[in-house]
Amino acid sequence: MSTGEGVRETWSTRIGFILAAVGSAVGLGNIWRFPFQVGQEGGAAFMVMYLAFVVLIGFPAMMVEFVVGRKTGLNTVGAIREFAGGAWKYLGGLFVFIGFVILSYYSVVGGWVLRYIGGSVTGGYTGTAAEGAPPVAAQYFGTISSGLDTLLFHGLFMVIVIAIVAMGVQRGIELGVKVMVPAIIAIFAALAVYAFTLGGATEAYSYYLSPDLGYLLDNWQSIVPAAAGQGFFTLSLGMGVMITYASYLSEDENLGVDGATIVGFNTGISILTGLIVFPILFTAGVDPETSGAGAIFISVAQALGSIPFGEIVGVLFFATVAIAALSSAISLIEVVVSYVIDEFGLDRVPATAGIGTLIFLLGAPVTYDTVMVDLYDIFAAQVLLVLGGILLVILVAWLHADEAIDELKKGVGNLAWIGDLWLWMVRVPVLVVLLVSLYLGVDGFVEFLQGDFAEFLSSL
Ligand code: PHE
């Protein structure tokens, strides 16, 4: 078992690291969050912006985190303190805080997913509603998405996360993701093939894949921050996960190739999710725009009730989502756990249990009403992660560029020239786009506070 004083663990294999990072990236962000962002922001128009973000902004930003993690070999807080010192050390603290916030509501949604596995087996969300009543799936979501049971399932999700992370980097995280990631890919590929055979597939593909550029131009002010938030969220950027994971790496790794592999896999899974979700929705005649946080839970569940083999597909789908959510949750808590182990010399088991309990408590209010999920989620993705990304880019690309480039060049062989290209990408275009996104993201969050959230408060 690893302790604060013991030798720091590393990944046992290169593929272990890649799978762990893919496991972190692929999660509720791809499967729960992505479809409703696509739905809310105009279908394929959002896709264009999202893909541009992931490749042109997300990938270089991931390298920024890798460089800091591998160079220092430390947890997020320690890494930033060693890299920069002075007041910058608070940036590490901000990352730990963001990890707390995200996992606290992530786990609530994870609890919904666990419930839906059961609901798929018992047929809880399918069936015909009484005249004039909302569809059964919507009623089901209404009953499971808030209240005491929701709190219990949030707790159950956290217990599973704690159990895996308490076992350590190699035995817990690495072994876990070696099973989980291939399972996600195999099941989702099979489900996409199945979705292709459905009647609504053609219509779905055009909604999802042929962008209306006019729509994009008219609505860029909401699409840009949504794409930025989704890009950072889905790649696990902006809060030190990739710093922490890269800190368990050795120097002969080619960070660029690893990063491209991770981004490629993650984007592939998101696209695959759309290829499953949208044909199911169009086949069942469900509108992808009316969904929000309930998206896959209401509309996909409802659709599953009316398509062939819906029940089996439902079990497979939600079980896969649960696995994906767990492998991401592991990375979120690991940021905080590694900090506490490294800095305070705590043992892994009590550290994980204690932190998990605090996160559970922070998430408890989220089980009160689904609007709380939006509150935490918009704040985390569109404000906190983007802010974290901006600060890190300034620190690494402007203030410590020489060290960063040297680190990036290790292990890349004759690809060393990309170091300079990367630096200038990050210094100007990436930073400018992130600043604009943060501005628009804060604006959107304030709008949410004054709109939906104010309405919720006044209804209390
Ligand atoms: N990337 C994860 C997902 O898509 C969520 C996550 C965000 C994990 C930030 C770690 C850090 O579900």
Structural class: mainly alpha
Distance between the termini: 48 Å
Small molecules in complex: phenylalanine
Might you state the CATH topology name? Answer: Hydantoin permease
Report Rg.
Answer: 21 Å
Residue fraction in strands: under 5%
Q: How many helices?
A: 19
Uncertain runs with pLDDT below 50, 5 residues or more?
Answer: 1-5
Number of domains: 1
Query: So, the CATH homologous superfamily?
Result: Hydantoin permease
Care to give the gist of this entry?
With 460 residues, the chain is an all-alpha fold. Helix content is 78%, strand content 0%. Helix 3 (44-72) packs across helix 17.
Describe what you observe in this structure.
With 460 residues, this protein is an all-alpha fold. The protein has a single domain, classed as Orthogonal Bundle (Hydantoin permease), CATH 1.10.4160.10. The chain is 78% helix and 0% strand.
Quick tags:
single chain, 460 residues, mainly alpha, Hydantoin permease, disordered N terminus, binds phenylalanine
Topology:
Elements: H1 14-25, H2 28-40, H3 44-72, H4 76-83, H5 89-122, H6 136-144, H7 148-166, H8 169-196, H9 201-209, H10 213-218, H11 220-234, H12 241-246, H13 255-284, H14 295-304, H15 310-344, H16 348-363, H17 370-399, H18 401-409, H19 418-458
Helix pairs in contact: 1-8, 1-13, 1-15, 2-11, 2-13, 2-15, 3-4, 3-11, 3-13, 3-17, 3-18, 3-19, 4-5, 5-7, 5-15, 5-16, 5-17, 6-14, 7-8, 7-15, 7-16, 8-13, 8-15, 9-13, 11-17, 11-19, 13-14, 15-16, 17-18, 17-19, 18-19
The structure holds phenylalanine (PHE).
